Amino acid sequence: MIVKHCALDLFDQRGGPSPSLVTAYDKSRYRHDLSMHNVTWVQGATGMWLAVYNGTNAYMHRAHATTEALGITGGLNDGYTIMGWINWTDTGQSLIIAGRYEVSVGGWELYLTENAGVYYLTQRHHHAGTLVDGEFRSASNSVGWTPGTPYFFTVVFQGNGTDCIHYRNAVPLAILSSTGGIRDFEATIQQLVIGIRYDLAANWYEGTMGGFRFYPYIWTPAQIRARYHAEKYHVGVPV
Predict the structure, then answer these.
(1) Which of 38, 99, 151, 194 has its CA 20 to 30 A from that of 62?
(2) InterPro entries per the record (predicted)?
(3) Which residues make beta-bridge pairs with 209?
(4) How far apart are CA 60 and CA 75, in angstroms?
(5) Which CATH number fits domain 8-235: 3.40.440.10, 2.60.120.200, 3.40.640.10, 3.90.1150.10?
(6) C-alpha distances in angstroms, 133 versus 2, 94, 100, 139, 163?
(7) Is 159 within 8 Å of 136 (Cβ atoms)?
(8) Who has greater pLDDT, 6 or 84?
């Protein structure tokens, strides 16, 4: 399985016990360590550490300068892959998994939401100079992300004007996208956030996350299946 050029690989923490300001350690070669606020930790079925977000004041972030320099935004419009384990709680609002964005200005965001009893995972790009379906943003979403269940999510952006492919437990899902597909995002000066809106003021994630990774290239279905089957027992997923 190819894992070259991983841009973000969050598994561990350092700097003291939570809740407090500590550091989420990035195992990738870029060392995108994140500041961690009120996030606690729990071990999965075989000892894999999962970050616990309380839905009120727990999140991670990294300031703009270093994430820009190390490629969290630069060049990703050529294609990228985001993956990880989630087990979320519906709080009646959109819950941010991760993003580096400003609404209708630039960047990308990945979030969960509920509408009329349907649970969505959405990958959205922001682009102030491109109007899509009457808005300065475009998106691809999938359904069936029922709260209270551990899932291995993967989203793969293939390039401008395509669908952003979604996988749940390594199985590709039906996708609904903006007219003309999801478009390239525009530049942003915002920080990288996990578990919270870009302005650190809303859309708090509630639940667990683990094995969060970001790759500045496109993973194949076979690679995604291999990663899922290598990790599923860590979080108690039997199949």
Answers:
(1) 151
(2) ConA-like_dom_sf
(3) 51, 86
(4) 23
(5) 2.60.120.200
(6) 37, 21, 22, 10, 15
(7) no
(8) 84
